[in-house]
Amino acid sequence: MSSEIPMRVAVVGATGFQGAAVARLLAERLHRVRAMTRRPEADRPPLPGAVFVAGDLGRPAEVRRFFEGTTHAFVTMPLVYESERVETYAWNVAEAALKAGTVRLVFNANTRIPLGPTDIAAFETRRLAERVLRDSGVPLVVIRPPVYLDNLFSPWNGPALVDEGVLSYPLPESARTAWLSHRGLAEAAFAALTREGLEGRTFDIGGARSLTGGELAAAFGRGLGRAVRYEELDPVAFEHGLARVLGGAAAAGVAGIYHYMASGADPLLMADDDGVSTEVLALDPPPVEEWVARQPWQVWATDADEPDASPHH
């Protein structure tokens, strides 16, 4: 399999931040991208080079129609954490991919997943989707990212960071985390789609570096040229804030990851991958301070005009 041969890629989740990053990279490298969406045209993100196809993951015929004529697929599930719905979505994707003769499907689990079972829907529904896709026989590669740096460039973090030098996030200060950007995810996804001999493998992507909260704040300080301190955000407060944006069910699903991390049950769940993704997927993210230095943080200053956050988070 060669990255030089044009692919026709079905991207499920392209209207979300992670899927959009993958779709943009694929289009930049002159591969054809089909993006499935339920959103009206006016509410779609700018994805030059991508063709939008209306469809719903819960409707098998629409998913099959979306996959027609494609050679590869990248899949990120929506923020849905009901087991039956996720299982249905996964089976619809698997059957459509098999019918289309998909050469390889890359599934982005959207999170690391603990080895043993938990009562956290964000983990268990993604574990379920992985199992469905794998059992279907579709040529599969699974990537499990840690936490995204892009989450920190947001209305919830930006103002306090710019005005007060405070970086707050709902992870314990001591939790070593391999922070990854959406662009880093896209690079890993591209390698997972194109490199030979990866079918059947699962990768905890993120690279070979991980940081505690204090080390993350220090890296932000270097990138911003000012002192920055880390504050642990209460996962309950985080969930309440998220609910105002995503709704209660989705917020509870997302926040479940952070409640689990706060419990201390698996403190290294989001840590580095011992260099496996660096070696196999050629994923070597730049230092955090370099990512920080490239972001237009001043849009979050209290004296700035009201920003449009949607392209950045």
Report what the structure shows.
The protein is of the alpha/beta class and 313 residues long. The protein folds into 2 domains: 8-148 and 180-204, NAD(P)-binding Rossmann-like Domain (Rossmann fold); 149-177 and 208-271 and 286-300, 3-Layer(aba) Sandwich (Rossmann fold). 40% of the residues lie in helices and 13% in strands. The protein is built from 11 helices and 9 strands. It has helices at 17-28, 60-67, 83-100, 121-136, 158-164, 182-194, 213-224, 235-246, 248-263, 276-280, 288-294, and strands at 8-12, 32-37, 50-54, 72-76, 104-108, 140-144, 166-169, 202-204, 229-232. The strands form 2 sheets. The chain has a 7-stranded parallel sheet, with helices on both faces. α3 links the parallel β4 (72-76) and β5 (104-108). α1 (17-28) packs across α6 (182-194), α3 (83-100) packs parallel to α4 and α8 (235-246) runs antiparallel to α9 (248-263). The longest helix is centred in the N-terminal third of the chain and has 18 residues, at 83-100. The protein starts with 7 loop residues before the first strand and ends in a 19-residue tail after the last helix.
